[in-house]
Write a sequence for this structure.
């Protein structure tokens, strides 16, 4: 019997009781499962601890659940892979599922003692507003999620993370299913949350607000998604996706401008306090 390569499946969670069981079920064939949870207030940890997977050799696998404060997407995902016992890791978000075809491909490439490549990408297919979205820039949306952790790390600028691998990679064909937004309201909440993070990251990197970016980049985003990426072929969902994509870009720069305004206000308040201090000091003489 040929020797297979063991791998660890890694998830990060926060209040994912609606998703965690399905996500774990899709990676239940892993040799080890690690869940890093950011102090969920729902049943996420309870459900994760109660799950039992079955590895490819028939061994029962109990998830290891670790509680940790939230430091950011990139930092939390790197922490998760650092906890793995095995060099090969498969990383998922709680709203993602490994399809049956992808599962077979993963089992195949790791069905040898030493896989030929250092990482594998997979197309991610998103379910939104009652249908699978295949255009508008949302598919194939390839993600590198299966890799040797000795050769790869999570990188990027929060909240937009990605894996960088030093070595050769190969494309898998099985889909990684993505159930990102429950409805339009959930989509808007996510946009609000992510643009908060993105604007603050830009401020940290000293990226200056420019009116031209707010005027040009949002409509170009819509044009790219709706026309160049053929989002119009998705019907009303494609139009909504393009409009909200445009709104995301606009809101990101609007919030960067707002942060700049807040900084000016804080400086002005400090100047008032300082001038008041000197005035009070002068009155003492």
């Amino acid at each position: 019997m040929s020797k297979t390569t063991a791998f660890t499946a890694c998830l990060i969670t926060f209040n994912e009781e609606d998703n965690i069981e399905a996500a774990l079920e899709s990676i239940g064939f892993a040799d080890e499962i690690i869940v890093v949870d950011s102090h969920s207030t729902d049943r996420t940890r309870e459900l994760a601890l109660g799950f039992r997977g079955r590895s490819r050799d028939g061994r029962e696998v109990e998830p290891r659940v670790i509680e940790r404060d939230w430091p950011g997407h990139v930092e939390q995902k790197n922490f998760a892979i650092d906890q793995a016992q095995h060099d090969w890791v498969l990383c998922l978000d709680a709203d993602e599922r490994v399809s049956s075809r992808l599962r077979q491909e993963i089992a195949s490439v790791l069905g040898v003692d030493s896989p030929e490549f250092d990482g594998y990408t997979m197309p991610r297919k998103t379910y939104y507003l009652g249908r699978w979205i295949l255009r508008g820039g949302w598919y194939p949306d390839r993600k590198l999620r299966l890799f040797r952790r000795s050769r790869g790390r999570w990188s990027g600028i929060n909240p937009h993370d990605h894996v960088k691998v030093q070595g050769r990679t190969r494309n898998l064909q099985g889909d990684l299913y993505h159930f990102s937004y429950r409805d339009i309201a959930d989509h808007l909440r996510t946009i609000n949350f992510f643009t908060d993070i993105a604007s603050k990251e830009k401020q940290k990197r000293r990226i200056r607000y420019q009116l031209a970016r707010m005027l040009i980049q949002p409509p170009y985003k819509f044009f790219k998604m709706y026309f160049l990426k053929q989002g119009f072929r998705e019907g009303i969902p494609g139009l909504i996706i393009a409009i909200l994509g445009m709104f995301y870009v606009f809101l990101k720069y609007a919030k960067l401008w707002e942060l700049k305004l807040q900084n000016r206000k804080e400086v002005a308040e400090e100047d008032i306090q300082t001038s008041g201090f000197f005035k009070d000091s002068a009155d003492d003489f």
The chain is about 40% helix and 25% strand. The longest strand covers residues 7-13. The helical segments are 20-26, 44-50, 73-82, 100-109, 184-204, 211-228, 236-283.
